[in-house]
Design a protein that fits this description.
Order of helices and strands of chain B: HHEEHHHHHHHH
Helix content of chain B: over 70%
Structural class of chain B: mainly alpha
Radius of gyration of chain A: 19 Å
Strand order of the largest sheet of chain B: 1-2
Number of strands of chain B: 2
Mean pLDDT of chain B: 84
Largest sheet of chain A: 2 strands, antiparallel
Shape of chain A: globular
Strand content of chain A: under 5%
Oligomer: heterodimer
Largest sheet of chain B: 2 strands, antiparallel
Number of helices of chain A: 11
């Protein structure tokens, strides 16, 4: 119940600054539409590419807007700015709540709000362009899709928490963050669906966790994954999540030992 | 005018001193800038991996477009304007515009030209080398006239981009909490990396809103490729001066509604 209250408080704060969330969503929309517009040019010369057709690739980019808005967390920015640069960390560490869950409930309202707007936008775009975004899935497949989305969210959040808490020691993670942003854009499936990337980039993308945050949830929704493949994706997602949880624990212990604060 | 040139010289000196003091900041900015340059090349490499030409632009021509993008936007625009526009949004949000308006300086000038990020020089040099290499690969010879045309059109392209950023950020006078509008502009800027024909795919109102962005880099690149027509040149001149004039008028108009928020 206490965590739910924290969630409501943050949600109230979000609603007071809802314009900012709308702008973030608009940015995601612009980027996705630019890539889609370019890829439509490629499809002028090909009727299909690696099983992708123009309607299915359009649906991919529309779903990308909603999926990225829901699943791609940005908690590391808040940790760096509010907790480290503005020095709010002392107060947070003294609270009788886990730092991980405090941040989780801070982030959830933003993902929820932007996700709902993203879905509305996605549906609107699919109507304007006459594209079908959802394939008929069985109840079991829908259940597996939900699980893939849930695990994707936790992978994204835990990974960004690890990046964020590194700033306890370094006090500045901007350089690292820029690098990660670029890697995520290339290898999560923002530019192109992973199987359309050129050879070497495609192989790297499958070996990194980012595809399991964005690409696989989208292709699962598009009905491009069979049940055994969905189960395989879930297995790999669990492996990544366990790995990140383990790394988080180690890094958290380490940064707390080295962290020195002057307080307020 | 002379006074402003003198002030700009002083700002250049001050920015140089800042660069020599905060060297790690310079290094951080430099690495990040080069990473984004590499990213823009990888993007075109990935997007054209399945097709040798898109919208009538060959893969090599698209790489030249990326090179020009990195000279003009990634290099020069980021060097002279980006940091100032980041500051613009913060100044409005924190209510610090009062102090700036009270200075005996034109407010548009001080909002636009205060900071210079010297790491942009490295990106410009790297991008020039890349562009000339790609031009050699395509076997296009450069004449003095082509270069002159490229520089003039590039200058007009930057004027368009500057005016568009200024117009959009002026909106924060009415909505100070929308300081992330500047991020939107970074996103829309990426449109300049692609041929203007991509907008044909969205034959709706967006076409007319986003068109100026695609002119910024594509027309100077056409000049390098010796494909720029009289219509292209007329269009970029009209759009550049029209937008510059509008940005000035819009700023003056917005200031009438500035109610001050600072203490």
């Amino acid at each position: 119940m206490r965590y739910f209250r924290i969630f409501l408080l943050h949600f109230q704060n979000l609603l007071a600054h809802r314009g900012r969330s709308i702008v973030w969503l608009f940015i995601a929309l612009v980027e996705a539409l630019i890539y889609l517009a370019f890829i439509r040019g490629v499809f002028q010369e090909h009727s299909s590419l690696s099983h992708w057709t123009l309607p299915s690739v359009s649906a991919y980019y529309f779903l990308l807007v909603a999926t990225a808005a829901t699943l791609m967390t940005h908690i590391e920015v808040k940790i760096l700015h509010d907790d480290i640069e503005l020095g709010q960390i002392d107060g947070r560490l003294l609270k009788p709540f886990s730092y991980y869950w405090q941040n989780f409930y801070f982030e959830i309202p933003y993902r929820f709000f932007q996700g709902v707007l993203g879905i509305l936008l996605c549906v609107g775009l699919s109507m304007v362009f006459g594209v079908t975004i959802f394939s008929p899935l069985s109840m079991f497949q829908i259940g597996l899709c939900c699980l893939i989305f849930l695990l994707a969210y936790f992978i994204s959040f835990t990974f960004k928490m690890i990046v964020g808490i590194l700033s306890f020691i370094t006090t500045d993670i901007r350089g690292l963050n820029e690098l990660l942003t670029i890697l995520i854009i290339i290898f999560a499936g923002y530019i192109l669906p992973i199987n359309l990337l050129p050879g070497i980039l495609e192989s790297i993308a499958y070996a990194l966790p980012f595809a399991y945050i964005i690409y696989y949830p989208i292709v699962a929704l598009l009905g491009q994954l069979s049940v055994p493949m969905m189960l395989q994706v879930i297995g790999i997602q669990i492996a990544w999540l366990v790995g990140f949880a383990f790394v988080y624990k180690i890094v958290w212990r380490s940064v707390l030992r080295q962290f020195a604060s002057v307080g307020q | 005018m002379k006074r402003y040139i003198r002030i700009y010289k002083t700002l250049l000196k001050l920015n140089y001193i800042r660069f020599t003091i905060y060297r790690i900041d310079f290094l951080n900015g430099l690495i990040s800038s080069l990473l984004w340059a590499a990213f823009s090349i990888i993007t075109i490499y990935a997007l054209t991996s399945k097709s040798s030409s898109v919208f009538g632009w060959s893969r090599e021509e698209l790489f030249i477009l990326i090179g020009v993008f990195n000279i003009m936007i990634g290099g020069l625009f980021r060097m002279y304007f980006s940091k100032n526009f980041d500051r613009f949004a913060q100044i409005i949000q924190r209510g610090e515009l009062d102090g700036l308006l009270l200075k005996p300086l034109d407010s548009q000038f001080s909002l636009s030209f205060w900071y210079i990020s010297f790491y942009g020089v490295v990106r410009v040099v790297a991008a020039v080398i890349f562009t000339f290499y790609m031009l050699q690969q395509t076997g296009i010879g450069l004449t003095f006239l082509t270069l002159l045309q490229f520089i003039a059109l590039g200058f007009l392209g930057l004027t368009i981009l500057y005016s568009l950023w200024f117009i959009v950020l002026t909106i924060t006078i009415w909505h100070p909490d929308l300081n992330n509008l500047v991020e939107t502009l970074y996103a829309v800027d990426t449109l300049t990396r692609y041929p203007p024909q991509i907008l044909n795919e969205f034959k709706i109102l967006i076409f007319y809103v986003l068109l100026p962005f695609t002119l910024v880099v594509s027309i100077p690149t056409k000049a390098l490729l010796q494909k720029a027509t009289f219509f292209d040149m007329s269009l970029i001149i009209i759009v550049a001066f029209g937008l510059l004039y509008f940005s000035r008028r819009f700023w003056k108009f917005a200031l009438r509604y500035y109610t001050s928020a600072s203490g």
